[in-house]
Amino acid sequence: MANGLAGDLAGKSVLVTGASTGIGAAVARLLARVGCRVGIHYNASLNRAEEVAADVRFNGADAFLVGGDLRSSAKCREVVDAAADHFGGLDILINNAGGLVQRVPIAEVDDAFFDAVMDLNVRSLVTCCSAAIPHMRKAARGNIINVTSIAARTGGGNGAVMYASAKGFVSTFTHGLAKELVKDNIRVNAVSPGVITTPFHERYSTPAMLEAMRATVPMNRLGSADECAGAFLFLASDELSSYVTGQVLEVNGGQYMP
């Protein structure tokens, strides 16, 4: 595939945060198939990250494992700089790391929970972007892809208002950063997954909740991580999307149609 569609990605260096499981892992594997050199960030799931790295290498691509808790701004910068140092630059940053943390009604939100959600979903993403921009400016090109959520459009489910609000920030930040960086030949977009069968929902959603969500999807089923990965490939490739910036690409089986 590296010499076919999206062949411009061959040899490009990419860092995928939260790449050990779910959507991040699927994206890392797909980008390896088109010849990218892939930085695989993980936090607690080293064994799963090593499995992703093995698949990346099986496809003949360079895999670089880098661990760290991105709730720390210092660690965000360390992770981005480590990937850039390993690859000799950074062409693409995919900000996939994030999470709901816990389902908490707004009446019960305290400062500690507020900080936990924002540090994981907002501060980490902003800091990773901030750390990547100098590397991309040095190369006079770059591509940033953020991960938002259908929750940013709908307000989220029970106990997920803070998560949804954080993802709303990500969507707005994507629009603004795209305008800020367009002069530097850096494109910024986002992918907004719907209800995807990943460890995220295994952790935070009951079978009954997932069934209720499925009933609202016109395709009448939940999505898979692999079904999200192609959206990232499209946005990462200048061959496929050179005139696309500041956009949020919805991948949700028709559940939300803006």
What descriptors fit this protein?
Rossmann fold, 7 strands, alpha/beta, 258 residues, 10 helices, single chain
Could you describe the 3D structure shown?
It is a single chain. The chain has one domain: 3-Layer(aba) Sandwich (Rossmann fold). Helices cover 48% and strands 14% of the residues. The chain has ten helices and seven strands. It has a seven-stranded parallel sheet, with helices on both faces. The relative contact order is 0.14. The mean pLDDT is 95.
Structure at a glance:
The protein is α/β, with parallel strands linked by helices. Helices cover 48% and strands 14% of the residues. It has helices spanning 22-33, 46-58, 73-87, 111-139, 151-154, 161-181, 199-204, 207-214, 225-236, 238-241, and strands at residues 13-16, 37-42, 63-67, 92-95, 142-147, 186-193, 248-251.
Largest sheet: 7 strands, parallel
> Looking at CATH, which topology would you report?
Rossmann fold
Backbone structural class: alpha/beta
- Quantity of strands, as a count: 7
The end-to-end distance, rounded to whole angstroms, is 32 Å
User: What is the rounded Rg?
Assistant: 17 Å
Strand content: 5-15%
Global shape: globular
Order of helix and strand elements from N to C terminus: EHEHEHEHEHHEHHHHE
Topology:
Blueprint: E1 13-16, H1 22-33, E2 37-42, H2 46-58, E3 63-67, H3 73-87, E4 92-95, H4 111-139, E5 142-147, H5 151-154, H6 161-181, E6 186-193, H7 199-204, H8 207-214, H9 225-236, H10 238-241, E7 248-251
Parallel strand pairs: 1-2, 1-4, 2-3, 4-5, 5-6, 6-7
